[in-house]
Amino acid sequence: MISTTRNAREYRGTETAGRSPEELRDLVSHWGAELELAPATTIIEWAAATFGERFCVTSSMGDAVLAHLASSVVPGIDVVFLDTGYHFVETIGTRDAVEATMPVNLLTITPVQTVAEQDAQYGPELYKTDPDLCCKLRKVEPLARSLSGYDAWATGLRRSETRNRVIAPVIGWDAKKQKVKVSPIARWSDEDVDRYIAENGILVNPLVYDGYPSIGCAPCTRRVAPGDDPRSGRWAGTNKTECGIHA
């Protein structure tokens, strides 16, 4: 297991040659419908066989379900984690536990600016004054830079999480990033996830059991009442529902 921390600056100019956007879109067109009903491991096997080292997994460390699935198919697979500088200590602890116990190559990505540098330029608590800009600087742009050397990335996106994600394809085209976006567990229900966690002893962020079914940055995440939308605790009190990574 290897843990690597990289500042977003390090990804500028590091992109290696891969398939063209046209070739990648053709793969999505051909395989999207073919794999729509396939098991999650089959979807990961296809992505690994198709893209090789230019395929990675992203994880927000709410749990290690996707990392476990992917590493069971491809031991040593790259798992990208965005350390925004605002995470709960439990989230960082879950990342460290994944690194210590699973056969993955963990890559911790940080924004170009530290929180202090961002505060100096934009004012303190940017997550309050301009949450969209804060997410852009600390999540969206760092992820885009970190994916420069990949043709495809896997996410833990699930359609049951929120109405906004109901149409998330299993194999899709991310036009903004010009990458293939793979969502192996898009069709999984909450019960499917719980069953997989129980049957495989999967690591789960302890905050999940403390009323946080969807976990983001600490200043912008609140507990959720039983029965409420799992993502209603994210950016509570605002109209914001996504950080921009999946928008």
Descriptive overview:
It is a single chain. This protein has 247 residues and is an alpha/beta fold. It has eight helices and seven strands; from the N terminus they run βααβαβαβαααβββα. The protein has helices at residues 21-35, 40-51, 65-73, 89-101, 115-122, 126-129, 131-146, 190-200; strands spanning 2-7, 55-58, 77-82, 104-110, 152-154, 171-174, 179-182. A seven-stranded mixed β-sheet has the order 1-4-3-2-5-7-6, sandwiched between helices. Strand 6 (171-174) and strand 7 form a beta hairpin. Helix 2 crosses helix 3. The protein starts with a strand and ends in a 47-residue tail after the last helix. Residues 1-16 have low confidence and may be disordered.
- What pattern of helices and strands is seen along the backbone? EHHEHEHEHHHEEEH
How much is the radius of gyration in Å? Answer: 17 Å
Structural class given helices, strands, pairing?
alpha/beta
Q: In this structure, how is the largest beta sheet organized?
A: 7 strands, mixed
- Overall average residue pLDDT: 88
Shape by Cα distribution: globular
Number of helices: 8
> Could you tell me the number of beta strands?
7
Instruction: Report the helical percentage.
Output: 25-40%
Strand percentage: 5-15%
Widest sheet: strand ordering: 1-4-3-2-5-7-6
Q: Please give the alpha-carbon distance between the first and last residues.
A: 32 Å
Contiguous runs where pLDDT drops below 50 for at least 5 residues: 1-16
Main location: cytoplasm
Enzyme class: oxidoreductase
Catalytic activity: [thioredoxin]-disulfide + sulfite + AMP + 2 H(+) = adenosine 5'-phosphosulfate + [thioredoxin]-dithiol
InterPro entries: PAPS/APS_Rdtase, PAPS_reduct_dom, Rossmann-like_a/b/a_fold
